[in-house]
Amino acid sequence: MNDSSKKEGDSLIPADEKPELRIILLGKVRVGKSFSGNTILGNDLFHSKPGLSPVTEKCQKEKRKINNQNVVVVDTPGLLSIDQTEEEIMRKIKKSIKLAKPGPHVFLIVLSVRDKYTKKVEDMVKSICDTFGKNTMDYTMVLFTRGEELKGTIEDFIRRNENLHELINKCDYGYHLLDNHPEKVPELLKKINDKVQAEEGSYYTAEMLQEAETALQQTVH
């Protein structure tokens, strides 16, 4: 973890309550980000419907108390959209950091087990890393959706694609598979909470985003 990451003390939190957890969902259009957000929070808070056109037009924040913990989820517009340029979408996505202030504990890059990990998706992940900077992978987990459609194990699915395997290895928070089983959500939150605790509450900050923007400008000029 980078030294400039912030850490949260829990001295002001009641004994039975856990520190707030903040999550940002990232991924391409129609991959199931909003559906994942609803699954995590156990409620239809994000607009989600089957189809080809993007549903999430701008960042949306929702919060719910789960097992004595406030869980904040920020949904973001889908990347690889034919309706907008990547630059326009990224400009909107960057606003998610303010919505998750003081900063997200984890970025969930949402991938579907239905889809191959193509060069296009690989480039999208690179674009996310360029936007959020050198610290991105310190705060990233890959969240696989549609687990009920998976033939074989998720480990085999990852191993079959060298580039996907490489991405998972870079993610400090690893990966998690979501399917129709409700117990997968507590497992996911436990996995994230354990890691946040191990990192003493460290989270991604607005300063890191600023650093990333400066670095990007320097590569352009």
From TrEMBL:
Entries under Gene3D superfamilies matching the protein: P-loop containing nucleotide triphosphate hydrolases
Family per similarity comment: Belongs to the TRAFAC class TrmE-Era-EngA-EngB-Septin-like GTPase superfamily. AIG1/Toc34/Toc159-like paraseptin GTPase family. IAN subfamily.
Entry keywords, A to Z: GTP-binding, Nucleotide-binding
Domain (AIG1-type G): residue spans on this chain: 18-213
Region forming the signal peptide: none
Species in which this protein is naturally found: Perca fluviatilis
UniProt key word Nucleotide-binding: yes
SUPFAM superfamilies from the UniProt entry: P-loop containing nucleoside triphosphate hydrolases
Name of the protein this chain belongs to: AIG1-type G domain-containing protein
PANTHER family assigned: GTPASE IMAP FAMILY MEMBER 7, GTPASE, IMAP FAMILY MEMBER-RELATED
One matching Pfam family: AIG1
Lineage: Eukaryota, Metazoa, Chordata, Craniata, Vertebrata
Molecular-function GO terms, alphabetical: GTP binding
